[in-house]
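quick one, two chains, predict together pls
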Amino acid sequence: MSLTVSNLSKKYGNKTVLDHLSFEMPEPGVYALLGTNGAGKTTTIRMMLGMLAKDSGEVLWNGKQLDTATCNVGYLAEERGLYPKYTLMDQLMYFAGLRGVSKSDAKKRIRYWAERLQVEEYLYPGKTAAPEAAKGRTKTKAQKPKLADQLSKGNQQKIQFMTALISDPELLILDEPLSGLDPVNTDLFKAVIREEIAKGKYLIMSSHQMATVEEFCTDITILHRSRALLQGNLNEIKKSHGRVNLRLKTEQDISAYIQKAGITQLSEKEYEYQLKVTGEDQANALLADLMKDSVRVITFDLREPSLHEIFVSTVGGEAHETE
Amino acid sequence: MKQNKGELQGVGKVFQFTLLQFVKNKANTITLIIMLVLTLFSVPVMTLFSGGGMSAGETCGISKVYWQDQTGYSVNPAETAQENDFYRDTVFEEADFSAEDFASSAEDGSVYVLFSSEEAASGTVISIQCLPEQEPSESDLSSLETLMSQALEQAKLSALQISEEQTATLFSGLSSQVQTMEEYQEGEGVDWGVQYGLQLGYSIIVMIISIFAVTYIVRAVVEEKASKLVEMLMVSVQPLALLVGKILAAMVYIFGFFVLLLAGIGISWVVSSQFMDVSAISETMAASGFSMDLLQLSPATLVIVLLSLLLGYLTFSILAGLSGTGCSTMEDVQGASTLSTMLIFVGYFAAVIAGSIGGDVLNLFVSLCPVISVFCAPVQYVLGNIGFGILLLSWLLQAAVIVLLAVFSARVYRALLMYRGSRPNFRQMFAMAKEQSSGKEQK
């Protein structure tokens, strides 16, 4: 299986909202669509899913036009919502039915995900655990099924995530999946995403949370003002930027050494320095100077730039050029 | 895995879910219960207002009626009483004794009726005697008096050798009408008041169904959009299927609602007739010139009415769906319903006004003009003002309007679902449809 997006373009009147975007996922993994607000990430996803008409380009799944007739897609939209006054079970069964999941399968999957995402108490009121686990126990109190508007935002988000996962999709598209979640639920979502990756699913993720993307994704596209500024494998992109981040911790002030070596100092706190070097040679030269003068070095950590830094430098640089 | 991606695939699932939610909705359930209670009480209340109320199973408390005829008209109360179920337990017997001997010769609980001629009273006299301390109730005596009067009248008419038909004419009352020569030559038609009443009644039913439909559909569409569910749904089902599923669900719910109300009236009629004289209702209706015969109630008429209601429903439903889709929040529901509701009122008032004026040309116009024809065509057909050909043409025109609206919906519904902002007017919607047909769309 493979996903190919080629030359995707979209205009609203004279305004271009997506300019000839192309990328490819030849094998399972996570592809990240990154960008500032209004860069065209959601538009790309909507066009991929056929919700918006394309001005040009095509989206292929296994060499055929992508639509849900040929590809089992799960989608968590950026704009989250549930029917506020309907029961959660009704809604999940409805979404499962629309995705062509049989009733018995849907019930099993809802049980599984309810347990996995820790929302059994809302889906199976009056039971302390999902029905299978609760067999043999007596109901202590008959409770009414929960309505969506009785849930916290985080729990609503879990139910929405369940609607995306209910069909056991082969292609999972998550638009800002972790936004608005507390740290506990963030970890829960991350664990589920890891499981899906392990199952060999194709994931497309749009996010502002660079650390999260960096944790999961193999390939990225950075969009800015409707154009792809940077694309490719994340490791290669990082390598291409070189090992330029140096974290150095010593037992004394080394500002004079840094200045002498012509290195940019980003920050300093209690003799822990964040430095920007031009490359390994400059970093090694500094270390050699310190060693020569018997300056005690506790930490010497030379690494590639983070995705956050790459993003900021890419988008910031572009913004600067445009200005 | 089977997916729903065809233009109308998934309609069934949307239909099932929407209908289930309509049924589960507490406000809908309360409305239904209130309406059902009202319909269950409708027949007894109407019977009382129509002057009925006598218990159907009740019989006369008088066990025996002795009668003697001294008029020479051969009065036979026993024959007249046979036609009245109220006297099924009462024995009528021609007395072989005089009124003076009644007290000594009669059975307990009996009365004595004497038909006599008195010149002083310038006619015939009916006198009813009761046994001492065994006087029947006022109502029994009053009913017996009426029955004896009927028996005497029949005897008098029989003596004149008047046929049953002539008798019916004599007792059918009097009405007068002023006609032009043209009207006279056209022959007898249905009374104006009845025509107007029928048009008004049908228009009210169409209006209620249409307003129900608009309310339910707009609410269902806006709720989905305001809840920001549309994107999640559109992965699985096409926008048009979302709309059609809702329209069908609302249709089944509303028509089911009305069938339940009709069933409620039926149950009320059957139960009431066990202990009330419900014929008073039909007598009151007949007195105002209305009869069930006028409705030509037959399977064909029912099919015509149902089909006409269905076409009207679809017209207003699609409009409601389109208006609702332009809304972004629940606050816009009121505004979204306005256009459809206005059109319903236009059709209703035009139908009522046309019903009061009448005339061949106007009848033809209101039967063919889309929107208005929804309210008028079947009534005009039942009243015989238009032929089946015109009715068929009316349906075709309505179907064409529905198809045009459906095509228009298919073009703009997707764009409208993704639309955020103030509610677009129809001009903007047309622009969207134009852009859609050229492969573009508005933001």
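Residues 55 and 120 of chain B are 40 Å apart (CA to CA).
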